[in-house]
Design brief:
The chain is built from 1 helix and 11 strands; from the N terminus they run αβββββββββββ. It folds into 2 domains: 42 residues; 141 residues, Lipopolysaccharide (LPS) transport protein A like domain (lipopolysaccharide transport protein A fold, Sandwich), CATH 2.60.450.10. The relative contact order is 0.09. The protein is α+β, with helices and mostly antiparallel strands. A hairpin with a 5-residue loop joins strand 1 and strand 2. The longest helix has 37 residues. Strands 2-3-6-7-5-4 form a 6-stranded antiparallel barrel.
């Protein structure tokens, strides 16, 4: 071994030891980070992933015709539970089997794979006057709409106006397909006979 190589030998040995130490440290850090991720509880994402302003959503029936239309000032989607919150929603039903119906509210939440629409604050259900029937207006502070079934329900107090007649009660089921409206309890009313 030459004199030059002998002088470099300690430096090469120190370089090899330092490289080995760096590799072991990197490996230990990776193991610690992976183990820490598994041990840490996962937290659900609570912030929205998208929003849409002044939107319009049309659901088509199997025959390709519009079944219902949802519009609103703003829709915000939350991925944690796949729900959406709507400001100033309006829902219009276009069922071929029943009269058109419209729902309005200050806000709404869509849940259950977009099959349930929970409407809150100044909720108003309207069915316009048609030949042989008076207009229908139902007001409450909460209603659950099931647009695929053409149903609207609530367990809260409601006020119903049919033409000049007025009913009030607690709990309601409005089946637009069957043209039936059922009040469940505490019913009071005023009936104006048609002229």
């Amino acid at each position: 071994m030459s004199e030059n190589t002998r002088r470099r030998y300690p430096a090469l040995l120190l370089l090899a030891f330092g490289s080995l130490l760096a590799a072991v440290s990197f490996w230990a850090l990776e193991v610690a980070l992976r183990g820490g991720d598994e041990a840490r509880p996962t937290t659900a994402r609570t912030d929205p992933d998208y929003f849409v302003e002044d939107f319009s959503y049309t659901r088509l029936a199997p025959n390709g015709k519009a079944q219902y239309l949802i519009t609103g000032r703003k829709l915000v989607h939350y991925p944690a539970d796949d729900s959406s919150v709507i400001e100033r929603p309006t829902v219009r039903s276009f069922s071929a089997k029943s009269s058109p119906m419209m729902l309005r509210a200050q806000r709404a939440t869509i849940t259950k794979q977009q099959r349930e629409l929970h409407l809150y604050d100044e909720v108003r259900l309207e069915r316009p006057q048609t030949r042989g029937t008076d207009s229908l207006v139902v007001e409450s502070d909460y209603m659950l709409a099931l647009p695929d079934n053409d149903l609207v329900k609530t367990h809260r107090p409601v006020v119903i106006r049919v033409g000049e007649s007025r009913l009030a009660g607690t709990g309601m089921v409005a089946d637009n397909a069957k043209r039936q409206l059922t009040l469940q309890s505490r019913v009071t009313g005023f009936y104006e006979s048609p002229r």
